[in-house]
Amino acid sequence: MSLEHVEDWRRSSFAERFATGLTDPTCPTPSGVMGPRGKGAVKRYNVYRNNVTVSLIDALVAIYPAVQRITGTDFFRAMARFHVRATPPTSPLLFEYGRDFPAFIEGYKYAQDMPWLGDVARIERAWLDAYHAPDGPALPAATLAQVPDDRLGDIIFRAHPATRIVRSAYPAVAIFAMNRGDGPATSLKSSAAEDALITRPDMEVDVRLLPPGNATFLASLINGATLAEAASIALDETSMFDLTASIAGMIEAGIFTTLYLGD
Amino acid sequence: MDAVMQKQDARPDGRLRFPTLPLGGLAGTSFKPEHFKAILRDGPQRGFFEVHAENYMGAGGPPHRSLQRIRSEHPLSLHGVCMSIGGPQPLDGEHLGRFCALVARYEPALISEHLAWSTHQSTFFNDLLPLPYTEATLDYVCSHIDQVQDALRQQILLENPSTYVAFENSTMSETDFIRTIVRRTGCALLLDINNVFVSAGNHGYPALDYLANFPLDEVREIHLAGHAEQSDDEGERLLIDSHDGPVADAVWKLYEIVVARCGAIPTLVEWDSNIPEWRVLKAEAEAAQLILDRSSARTVTIEHVA
């Protein structure tokens, strides 16, 4: 069969007829399916529709528990149902699902009074990426201490595969931290922009708030800038940037695995 | 003997191999991460553990750390859920590659997949969907199983499905379909007795008739699980393969019949939602182990002679 014929056959297959209604409740029960003794199968087919939709909503619940805690279960499941139907997964690895969900939340009509919710979702998505990222050693402080003082500015770091940075115009880190666990959620007075650092130097995913200038500094380093270049860019952004504290913080958080000296 | 010797060689990458742990006559359970600490507290179990392959297809992190620990002390069964063997389109080569890599990494004692499909075009539906049983579907299912077994260079077990609908254009029974697959591909079978009970109830035939027509000699693993009850359009009972509770009494009864007929086949209790405390799931496996041990006691003399 030519590729074109394979494609024709696939489109006319039982699977095509069966699949169409699984994420589209307006589709009728597909032709050719039946219950015992040839009887109809509306509720029977609906078991499959329900399995598909509910299991994918559950997958989003598992990835975005803080978002669900903020919105409440009913709100979240209704929002997730729209997303599942519009954007079902394309990979059998469900921990890869939901990458478009933060942007979907930002465009969702009923979530407009929570403009920070998409960023909270981005932190949760980054949390799961860090969880499944390749393992790697965190850069030991001793390795940095061995670099001669006159070469410090030439250091280039290699990021740990789990490292992620999420920048928000809202206090998304505080909202995430308050809602991710079972602890009490209190009202938040802050309206400050917050940057999140997500790392997993060993087995525990860690989410922390980055001090001013750090997101720019670390993003530059992750992209291969030298320490001197990254520090300069961060200082251009804010005079509050504290280089010494930032270096200590990034070693302690396990953001990088190795370093080498640029030219 | 040669195969056993080779198994103990060091790996090319220098990592130590996992022990080759036999699981003949053992009962096991799904391995759920929420049970990990309780399992460690209990110490090594007599039984085996089964995991869904897709949950361990990430690069690193806690899932692999815990599975390595479990695998170092127990036989492992690797159960694929998403290969979509029963769908008309070609298998996802990338997914098959990931599956092979996982087999190489964990050296499972059993490898299984489903007679079902879950992906169509580019959409993954996250459910085990049914197919008609015809010459045409038989051809591609067999070629998909050939492809998986060629890639793995080992036999897989194919699991009978639970279904809620049948297809008007089916030309053969599920048991004839499965029997022909076994003959053509050389695969073996994972008999899910809860699925037999669910499908029999949903399609109006006796579960014992299905088992009488099933190629029981090819069964290398048994699944047991709980199901739920709903009703269809006419108010008839519709059984749902929910894996959310204990194994039903009727399924235990069928299990005893199969074990009496086939001997002590490795048996797994599945529990995938509303997951209970470890001791509850463990007790289900212990109940299966009692039935297996009774059967082994009857056949032990024959095995010693053999």
Anisotropy-based shape of chain A: elongated
CATH class of chain B, named Alpha Beta
Q: In what range is the share of β-strand residues of chain B?
A: 15-25%
Q: In percent, how much strand structure appears in the residues of chain A?
A: 5-15%
- The helix-strand sequence of chain A is HHEHHHHHHEEHEEHHHE
Quickly count the domains of chain B: 1
CATH architecture of chain B: Alpha-Beta Barrel
Supply the helix-strand structural class of chain B.
alpha/beta
CATH topology of chain B: TIM Barrel
- Mean pLDDT across the residues of chain A is 94
Helix content of chain A: 40-55%
Tell me the radius of gyration of chain A: 24 Å
> What sequence of helices (H) and strands (E) makes up the elements of chain B?
HEHEHEHEEEHEEHEHHEEEHEH
- Which strand order do you get reading across the main beta sheet of chain A? 3-4-5
**Biggest sheet statistics of chain A:** 3 strands, antiparallel
Care to count the β-strands of chain A?
6
Number of domains of chain A: 2
Classification by helices and strands of chain A: mainly alpha
**Can you tell me the residue ranges of chain A where pLDDT is under 50 for at least 5 consecutive residues?**
none
